[in-house]
Amino acid sequence: MNAQVQYLDQPGGTFTASSQEIATPGPGEVRLRTVTTSVCQSDVVIYKQGLPRIKKWPAVLLHEAACVVDEVGHGVTQFEPGNLVGLGCDIPCGNADCIYCGENGTGDWTSCPNTWATGHEYDGFARSHAVLPDWFVKYGPIVKFPKGFDPSHACQLEPLACCLEGMTRVNHCIENRIVVLIGAGSQSTYALQCAQAMNARKIIVINRGQERLERVLRDFGGDNVVGIRWDENVVENVTKECQPFNEPHFVMVNAPVAAAYELAPKLMGYGTVMDAHAGVKGASGKPRLAHEVDLNNDIHYRLQCYQATHGSSMRGIRLAHQFLSEGRLPKIDLMTNDTERFGSDDILGAITRAADSDSLKVIVHWD
User: To which CATH superfamily is domain 2-161+312-365 assigned?
Assistant: First the structure.
């Protein structure tokens, strides 16, 4: 059978459809039919300026995917044709003896020097079909959803997993706590919904653009959700909203700009956890963003915690699968409106829409 593949020839270039023969899955392998793919901001970055991790062009983008199992190879028992599955982006290196990725590994794939990422070193899902190798099926981030589950929700597994990795790495930093989200993009909107599901006391969303902030507050707000414009008074205004506490308990950086990393430490107080969630990257790599920390007075005596979320492990994937399967994000459909749905013949249109300042989650439908 043939697969339809959308290749990007170069950064800022052209997507070209190609028909390629796809093999029957071998022992331990699974062939998938792509149903939906959502667009990540890293896809926008790759399209606009490329990434050093992508060594060969043309490239196959898109890593937030929901697929139907089309055929399984000999020995595969955990999946069967017709299953709807969601996939993670960060994937193991394939070495069964790896202390991170392997048979008895820790599962911390992002720590492995040989780890891969879908849509980067490993072809993404801007293609109608794919055969997953046996090591991906055995060790990788692939989970099965209940029968009849919505593929438009399933393709949001990976970004939600990344979000939950950051929000659960430190115990008890969300429930009954004040959560500050810097940026009002898709990751902050996932975090807002998760914080609501985890019973946060108050959620403060900071954003420069009024249009997207208003959309997020309108569609996902509540009595305990506050929006604050990112201006010269932002620190003072956040502090006021934290009352009767003196500071927020959890600060998540979801804006991939240096200014967000300059703002976040100014919001740190007693016992505050800061999650450096959105990295700053470009065609030339990752710029150095320096900040001085007082290890004694801040880290020790004020119990501050600086952490980062980079990708997701199976722990995050399982948490996201649980949140989605149990319907703990009842407003997730509002992540995507009619202007954010595209067909597989318009990948460029989908990426262009995802780059808009008012957009949240763009979904490409392959059926």
Answer: Medium-chain alcohol dehydrogenases, catalytic domain (3.90.180.10)
